[in-house]
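New to this. Please check both lines:
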Amino acid sequence: MAGDEPINDPHAVADAEPLPNHWTVRYAPAWLRPYLRLARMERPIGAWLLLWPGWWAIALAASAPGSGWAWLGLPDPLLLALFALGAVVMRAAGCTYNDIIDRDYDAQVARTRNRPLPSGQVTLVQALAFMLLLSLIGAAILLSFNTFAVGLGVASLGLIAIYPFMKRVTYWPQIFLGLAFNWGALLGWAAATGGLSAAPVALYAAGVFWTLGYDTIYAHQDKKDDALIGVKSSALKLGAASRPWISGFYAATLGLLALSNALSNAAWPFYIGLGVAALHLARQVWRVDFDDPASCLGVFRANKWLGWIVFLAIIAGQVGA
């Protein structure tokens, strides 16, 4: 199928290459493959990064008043499953929306020019219909939560809508990505408890700083093309100073994670896990080569494991509380 052949572009970066052995190519019918690529199903790291703040919040709320699993200190498994499905669906809808908005820019960037829309594998109308289907599934999941959580979920739509335009007007689109991508920290707590408190707000702020760090690393892949076509990013803004700035973003992440768990009376095992998380983030900052797109992509993807470390640390802190 057109678009599944290797890209022979000397300027293409690591995640521009098709994955010929992935299930989306090996087993999916030919007509479905462009939609799966539009949804980034072959590159699940985005779904993980969208999922983690919600799972962290559900775990953090395990012992909170109103949580159905407070007697065990464990996260609600049904909520974890719903948030996992929601993260996959809404990440796919978000990627489709982003590709619709950015289709002309994507055609000018080595990493993105082979995406289904700029390469002509799907039409604009087909992409819009696909996004609507995904949004309806996401809405059905949201409506299964309590009324407060539903309202909170609807409130996130403004952030989602404006994010793709931010790279045109500010060097800090990563802030808006962080505000949108970490909304699950608020939603997860609300779904578990029916309200909000200071702990999930601190967790949300931690996620925003985390996103500022990892997405600045990610943006270094595109900095040459972005500079040529006039797209802004924190990677272009910070340039050679990226390493100390990312160190600061990650330090803020760790401090706010500590605060959110202290506010929820986490036991000492959480702080051992937080120490492991600190070592993981320090290693990211130490090893990344900002001039090597493959290095940037590898370090960016490593944040999936940071998510697991923090998730398990929160559970340990709540069980021991």
About this structure: The chain has 16 helices and no strands. The mean pLDDT is 89. The CA atoms of residues 157 and 180 lie 8 Å apart. The radius of gyration is 20 Å.
